[in-house]
From TrEMBL:
Residues 384-467 form a coiled coil. Keywords: Coiled coil. This is RecF/RecN/SMC N-terminal domain-containing protein. SUPFAM superfamilies: P-loop containing nucleoside triphosphate hydrolases. Residues 2-732 form the RecF/RecN/SMC N-terminal domain. It holds the Pfam family SMC_N. Gene3D superfamilies: P-loop containing nucleotide triphosphate hydrolases.
Length: 747
């Protein structure tokens, strides 16, 4: 016993709550026309998830809700609950009792519940399909639909059989797998195109990153080179400075000793020469004498020059005195005054007629002679005066120089006297100081050597200072080009070879190496490295993610394909074996019903042409007919003692019997928990009603039967009878009744 009860409230004519308990394998619902019996069958459809309003005789969801009468108010919602005994776990859910409820509201919103939990329609369909209660509702035969299985097309019939065999769930799964596969393949395409788009960018970034890596390597090797070079160089400089210092200690000390020694010797020499006189005085006197001589020669040179000038001026005077010159220029006013004078003498002479020519000429001659004489005299006076003044000045100078010269001579003489005297006295004393002087010479020679040594050290020191400056610059460069890490060098452990020429050339080689590396690093140009690395890393991660995604999708696609293939096999094998079984049962029921004859189902494949529009530009006039292969189930029947073959040739009663035989055969293979037959027996005569009753009893061994009937024979087979009446308030009423009452109600 699977089906326990059905609770209807607000559904169609059932305004009030009505509960039908199905405690017997066969339940019959009886009542007059229009009392609401078919509404019960529809309540079953409704609660099992039926989506076709037409099959529940409605147009809108609202039509399913009690619409009210003049006496009873309309309901806002229709609710139907169906309760199953699930102690044998016919439904794959871990409850002994399963209650499925569906509610529809006036706004057509539907709600589904399983044991009070809100679920989706899909969950209901899945749950029921595993108990062979499929959506096509082959187990609910509505009024007048008994021969639906016969009138259906081959294809529809096949679907009904598949449903009865419980294959719908696999087909549904297959469809879902196909949809998923399609979506997965689309995703693969999409993700692969994303990867393709990303590839050149990654390639480009990869090259940049390679450069950066190279630069990084260069930089780290530069750091190592620098560290090695700088640590050795700093050791070299420190040791060199120490070494120079040590080397300069002894010469400096010696120099100090020597200067003390010299002082001592000087004292000694000074004591020997009487203390007052010394060779320096001799030198001083010599110097003075030579200075005087120098002065004298300068004075002599000046005197010579003055003598020369004096000679010149004396010669000039002499020349002037002797010279008669006619080339000398005569001022014009003098010549015109001469002319005026001559003119006046001439005019006087002309006036004084008494004067003779001789007197006149001599007078004129005297005037002219006087004129020339005056000119001559004037000239000589100027030049002679100047020359005589010069001579006087020069003579004065000569006298002064002479005096100076004489002074100098005198001074020199005095010095010489003193010098000679001094020399004499030194020579007298020299015998005693000779040794001291000899030693002094020796000491001075040594002093020279020591000085040389110290100045060589000084040169080295200044070289070293330059090297230290260079070193400081190198450290700055190291920090600039290789980072502060490069300058964080450990002082090298002492090494004996630090100052050897091989080591120095090795250091020079290292320096060249650092410079080369520095240039290569600059050429590598690794600017903006961090950002680029980050971008590369992100892009690479993305590409990897996409690669994995493709892999996952390909795997998913493969497993979906496998699933589809498996489902195909399962559907095919289960269908074939199910069809075989149905065929057997069909034949058995048919021959039982008709007392012989034959009936069979066969799988047929037909190609059907469907019209499909093809777009040609903007006009879609051209039509092509695509043939589609379709599988279906064909029914063949042969009546006993008749040659008639085929369904069309059957009478109404025969069609009803044949279809009942097929329906019963179908429900035998995978028996559904219950079967509802709404007046399937309406067309049967008495004899056939009995056969129908027998079959029902046979069927009731496997499925619960709910029969809506007016047939007395059928009622007699039922264990429970429900009477439905239409009350005066226009609502359906339900009551459990005895057989006799039922017969009365039915009539
Ligand atoms: P028959 O024996 O003639 O087949 P029946 O007993 O099967 O009759 P139903 O077809 O189940 O009768 O019931 C039809 C009745 O239900 C009608 O009287 C109809 O008015 C009523 N009905 C249908 N829908 C609604 C609704 N939404 N609200 C109220 N009453 C409704």
């Amino acid at each position: 016993m699977h089906l326990k009860s059905l609770e209807i409230s607000g559904f169609k004519s059932f305004a009030k709550r009505a509960i039908l308990e199905f405690t017997s394998p066969i339940s019959a619902i009886v009542g007059p026309n229009g009392s609401g019996k078919s509404n019960v069958a529809e309540a079953f459809r409704f609660v099992l998830g039926e989506q076709s309003l037409k099959s529940m005789r409605g147009k809108r969801g609202e039509d399913l809700i009690f619409n009210g009468t003049s006496k009873v108010a309309r309901q806002q919602r229709a609710a139907v609950k169906i309760t199953f005994d699930n102690s044998r776990r016919v439904l794959p859910i871990d409850f002994d009792e399963v209650v499925i409820e569906r509610i529809v509201h006036r706004d057509s919103v539907n709600e589904y519940f399983v044991n009070g939990t809100h679920v989706r329609l899909k969950d209901i369909i899945e749950l029921l399909s595993s108990a062979h209660i499929g959506a096509t509702g082959h187990h609910i035969i509505s009024q007048g639909e008994a021969d639906k299985i016969l009138t259906a097309s081959d294809k529809e019939r096949k679907e009904m059989i598949e449903d009865a065999l419980g294959l719908k769930i696999f087909q549904w799964k297959r469809l879902e797998a196909e949809r998923k596969l399609e979506k997965t393949d689309e995703n693969i395409q999409h993700v692969e195109s994303l990867r393709r788009e990303l590839a050149p960018h990654i390639k480009f970034l990869g090259k940049q990153v390679e450069k950066i890596q190279k630069a990084k390597e260069l930089k780290s090797s530069l750091v190592l080179l620098y560290k090695d070079y700088l640590s050795r160089e700093s050791y070299f400089l420190e040791e060199s400075i120490k070494d120079l210092h040590e080397r300069s200690i002894s010469p400096q000390a010696e120099r100090e000793q020597i200067s003390l020694k010299l002082e001592e010797l000087r004292v000694r020499i000074g004591e020997k020469s009487g203390g007052a006189r010394s060779s320096s005085e001799v030198v001083g006197l010599e110097k003075k004498m030579s200075e005087e001589r120098e002065r004298q020669s300068l004075l002599m040179r000046d005197l010579g020059r003055i003598e020369g000038e004096l000679g010149y001026f004396e010669r000039e005077i002499h020349r002037l005195l002797k010279e008669t010159s006619d080339r000398r220029p005569v001022p014009f006013e003098r010549v015109s005054s001469l002319e005026a004078e001559l003119d006046s003498v001439m005019s006087e002479a002309l006036a004084e007629e008494s004067k003779t020519k001789k007197d006149l000429v001599s007078q004129l001659r005297a005037i002219i002679k006087a004129f020339f004489q005056s000119i001559q005299d004037a000239k000589d006076e100027v030049s002679l005066g100047k020359a005589r003044a010069e001579i006087a000045r020069l003579q004065e100078q000569r006298a002064k120089l002479d005096a100076k010269y004489q002074d100098s001579k005198n001074a020199e003489h005095l010095n010489r006297v003193e010098y000679e005297h001094l020399r004499q006295s030194i020579e007298d004393e020299q015998v005693g100081s000779l040794e001291a002087e000899k030693e002094m010479l020796k000491v001075m020679k040594r002093l020279q050597e020591v000085e040389n040594e110290l100045s060589a050290i000084g040169v080295e020191r200044s070289q070293l200072e330059r090297q230290r400056d260079d070193f400081a610059r190198e450290v700055r460069e190291a920090i600039l080009f290789a980072g502060s890490d490069a300058a964080r060098f450990e002082p090298v452990a002492s090494y004996r070879e630090w100052s050897s020429s091989q080591e120095r050339s090795r250091q020079a080689e290292k320096k060249r190496m650092t410079e080369k590396t520095m240039i290569r690093l600059e050429e590598a140009g690794a600017a903006g490295g961090d950002e680029l690395l980050k971008e590369y890393e992100e892009s690479f991660q993305r590409s990897e993610f996409l690669r994995k995604e493709v892999e996952d999708l390909v795997r998913a696609s493969a497993s979906l394909q496998t699933l589809i293939a498996e489902l195909d096999i399962r559907i095919k094998t289960e269908f074939e074996s199910g069809l075989g079984k149905i065929n057997n049962e069909f034949s058995r029921f048919f021959t039982h019903m008709f007392g012989g004859g034959s009936a069979s189902l066969s799988l047929v494949k037909k190609t059907r042409k469907i019209r499909e529009s093809v777009d040609v530009g903007e006009i879609s006039e051209n039509m092509s007919e695509e043939p589609v292969a379709e599988e279906g189930i064909e029914v063949k029947v042969g009546l006993p003692h008749k040659r008639i073959q085929g369904l069309v040739m059957l009478s109404g009663g025969e069609r009803a019997l044949a279809s009942i035989a097929l329906l019963f055969a179908m429900s035998q293979v995978n028996p559904p928990p219950f079967i509802i037959l709404d007046e399937t027996d309406a067309a049967l005569d008495e004899a056939n009603s009995r056969k129908y009753g027998d079959m029902i009893e046979h069927l009731a061994k496997y499925s619960q039967l709910i029969l809506i009937t007016h047939n007395r024979e059928t009622m007699s087979r039922a264990g429970i009878l429900y009477g439905i009446t239409m009350g005066s308030d226009g609502t359906s009423r339900l009551l459990s009744i005895a057989f006799d009452e039922a017969v009365k109600v039915a009539k």
